[in-house]
Design brief:
With 737 residues, the chain is mainly beta. The chain has no helices and 51 strands. Strands 2, 4, 5, 7, 8 and 10 form a six-stranded antiparallel β-sheet that branches. Strands 41-51-42-47-48-49 form a six-stranded antiparallel β-sheet, with no helix packed on it. Strands 1, 3, 6, 9 and 11 form a five-stranded antiparallel β-sheet that branches. Strand 27 and strand 28 form a beta hairpin. The protein is globular, with a radius of gyration of 29 Å. 45% of the residues are buried.
């Protein structure tokens, strides 16, 4: 029985050309006092039948759940639904039913998606006019794609001829609508809230452990302390009501700062019979985490969060022997959402220790990307002890809290006086109000020539703006430049190591960059946009502020976009790289090489010099090397024709001699020999193959789930012999153990 209807009702076949989800029931099986329901549409067919479609938003037919690039959609019935995220939020259109007669007291349906009245909605039309309307719940970043029951009382319209029209004329954030299971019924949509929705705890341990079930309907939870909402998040809480409701994994809510006090965990709703809230328990570690860091798809030397989603690297900064990595984090689930700043530290860029989440959503919204700096001279006045403040700059991105209703994106500050272990938000937030568009992702640096703080901020599509400040709290806007999309980065590098010849680099989310000059207020470009990387998973990178002068490196970490399906974590960071500017035959270009600290996890080594590799060579010269985690350094004299390279756990990395091109998994890049040689450096982890050609002239990070049953690595050549002048292969140890 569908959960949309009360349990004594039986659904009959869909009408208006739509296919029904349930078998027909004989009329004499129905209680005499209750008229059977009429299914207007259940959207289970491959097409829309005789419903009229305009525009692109509705696609070729009902969607099979979640569409590409969309957060997980849940709460619909059967296998299909109306989902206008087809090709993203920019598509528009309408879907209109044939005429039908209103014969029941209510029209019930499931609805989710954007809350844009008149633009993302479902309407009941009588005489061509909308007499009832409903929208999804979302008009701010974050939220949930779950569908919830909705009812229209149409008793006053009995006998009228009507149509249902589903509308999507909105573009941009939440510019789509999800609809399913439209039914005429004498009963309203079944209530979902039939269990206790709050629990009180006296905090005795570090965490509340919450059970997560992939695909379960997301519920909104709030943690309340002394009447104040201190945490607000959604979670696919495992119902725990039946055997197949058991959690896929557990996540934690850190409550340690309220130890000894009473807190309330309250849900907006729970499914009938749900035992998910009653299953929440206190603990000092993650429940059922005996396989932590050894899970099947856990990268072993690339950073991943213990639990939940991560994306953009944020706030990269070095202070007193520690590299600080902040990152966009959903602590409560596998998909994107609940944007929070996760936090980890490392002494060597390889071994990371995950600390507690640093910056949580508040009345200004969820926490989007940004940067961090060390306020050496206490210009902001935040310092309270001997430690220099670590100051983080982030985008407040609106949220569900009633106080933030309609809140646009603004820029805010948080700071720490204890080396990043605890955090306070600036009481004067936001420090920069909304400008226009989706302004976000502040990158802040100290500009020594002008003795000013500088911020570069993404304003809207293709526009970055520059600001300056004396105290990090008040900012003056100076100039704009048309360039890249989101996640700006700004830094200076010497050309060919010459400290007397430096250039500034400005880039955005893709990593493509401009070279030019920067006077503290305005960037003057000297090049057009230059392609940085040639892989399939690189995005939203950032470089470390405050690296010591004696080190002198510009170290970058990017988000590696790789889905870890079936794991209690998702996405990763790419391995840190050192950036340099070098003169090439095409002009000055930025090179990327893995940081030398990779040597800290070198294990077994195989090497040779001056070996000829022949076509169809049967001997596997790399036999004995375990291919799970590997670092390869090789130099080849390529000859005049053919191909050569490596087969890495069934994935070819191929250099084509005639094309002078390196390729892997459908990605390719030109790579000319230098002094007659091709140099390849390759890092292999469980979910990535990172390729560096000719000392980083080509940087090609490839996200791919490598087969667990094939750990063989082979060297090969086709079309002619190739001379392997140098080959070093290192097995790598796990950075987690």
């Amino acid at each position: 029985m569908k959960n949309l209807l009360i349990c004594v009702l039986v659904v009959v076949c869909g009408c208006a050309g739509m296919e029904s989800k349930g078998p027909e029931a004989e009329e004499d099986a129905q209680p005499a006092a209750i008229a059977k329901d009429i299914v207007i549409a259940d959207f289970e067919g491959e097409g829309y039948g005789n419903w009229a479609v305009t525009g692109e938003a509705f696609g070729p037919g009902p969607a099979k759940g979640t569409l590409g690039g969309q957060m997980e959609v849940g709460g619909f019935e059967g296998k299909r639904l109306v989902n206008t995220y087809f090709k993203g939020d920019e598509t528009t259109g309408t879907l209109t039913s044939p005429d039908f007669e209103i014969q029941r007291k209510n029209i019930n349906f499931l609805i989710g998606g954007g809350m844009h009245p008149g633009e993302t909605c479902i309407n009941l039309l009588v005489d061509g006019k909308a007499v009832r309307t409903a929208t999804g719940p979302n008009d701010q970043p974050g939220g949930t794609e779950a569908l919830d029951p909705h009812s229209w009382d149409v008793s006053d319209l009995a006998g009228k001829t009507a149509k249902i029209q589903i509308v999507d004329t909105a573009t941009g954030g939440w510019g789509h609508i999800n609809v399913d299971q439209i039914v005429q019924s004498d009963a309203k949509a079944a209530a979902t809230e039939e269990v206790e929705t709050s629990r009180n705890f006296v905090v005795k341990k570090k965490y509340l452990n919450l059970p997560v079930k992939m695909g379960a309907r997301k519920r909104i939870f709030r943690l309340i302390v002394d009447g104040e909402v201190v945490r607000d998040f959604d979670i696919a809480l495992a119902p725990m009501a039946q055997a197949d409701d058991e959690p896929d994994f557990w996540v934690t809510l850190d409550v340690s700062e309220w130890k000894g006090r009473e807190v309330t965990l309250k849900a907006d709703s729970l499914g009938r019979g749900s035992k998910g809230l009653s299953s929440v328990e206190q603990g000092n570690s993650i429940k059922d985490s005996s396989d932590l860091y050894v899970e099947k798809l856990r990268p072993q030397f690339h950073f991943t969060s213990r639990r939940g989603w991560n994306n953009d690297s944020n706030g990269l900064v070095y202070y007193k022997g520690e590299y600080h990595l902040f990152y966009q984090h959903n602590p409560y689930g596998w998909p994107w959402g609940n944007m929070t700043w996760g936090h980890a530290v490392s002494k060597d860029l390889v071994h990371w220790k995950e600390l507690g989440d640093a910056i949580h959503p508040d009345k200004l919204g969820t926490i989007f990307s940004g940067s961090a700096a060390i306020d050496e001279n206490n210009t902001a006045g935040f310092q309270t002890g001997k430690e220099k403040p670590i100051v983080c700059f982030y985008t407040s991105a609106g949220g569900r809290n009633p106080e933030s209703k309609g809140q646009p994106f603004t820029q805010s500050i948080a700071y720490s006086n204890d080396r990043g272990r605890t955090w306070a938000k600036y009481e004067g937030n936001p420090v920069i109000g909304h400008i226009r568009g989706g302004n976000r992702d502040p990158k802040v640096i100290w500009h020594e020539p002008t003795k000013k703080w500088v911020m570069v901020l993404y304003i809207e599509e293709g526009v970055m703006a520059f600001f300056t400040s004396d105290d990090l709290r008040t900012w003056e806007r100076h100039s704009e430049i048309k360039c890249y999309h989101e996640c700006p980065e700004l830094f200076e590098l010497p050309v060919d190591g010459d400290e007397n010849n430096k250039k500034w680099i400005l880039y955005g989310g893709s990593g493509d960059y401009l070279i030019g000059q920067f006077d503290g207020k305005e960037f003057t470009k000297e090049t057009e946009s230059i392609r940085f990387q040639r892989g399939n998973c690189f995005y939203a990178s950032q470089t470390f502020n405050n690296i010591p002068e004696e080190d002198g490196r510009r170290i970058q970490i990017a988000w590696g976009r790789v889905n870890m399906t079936g794991m209690p974590f998702n996405q990763q960071m790419l391995f840190p790289v050192s950036l340099t500017l070098r003169t090439t035959d095409e002009g000055i270009r930025m090179f990327a090489e893995p940081v030398e600290e990779i040597k800290k996890i070198h294990g077994k080594r195989l090497s040779w010099e001056g070996k000829t590799v022949e076509p169809e060579q049967k001997e596997n010269v790399l036999a004995g090397i375990r291919g799970d985690l590997v670092h390869i350094i090789a130099e080849f004299s390529p000859g005049e024709r053919g191909e050569f390279g490596f087969i890495i756990r069934s994935v070819p990395v191929v250099y084509n001699v005639e094309k002078q091109e390196i390729s892997c998994k459908g990605k390719s890049a030109g790579l000319r020999p230098e002094n007659g040689k091709i140099r390849l450096e390759i890092l292999v982890d469980r979910t990535t193959i990172e390729i560096f050609g000719n000392h980083g002239r080509v940087y090609m990070p490839i996200g791919t789930i490598l087969p667990d049953d094939n750990r063989v690595i082979r060297i090969f050549t086709k079309g002619g012999n190739v001379m392997s002048d140098l080959l070093e292969v290192y097995e790598l140890r796990s950075a987690w153990r």
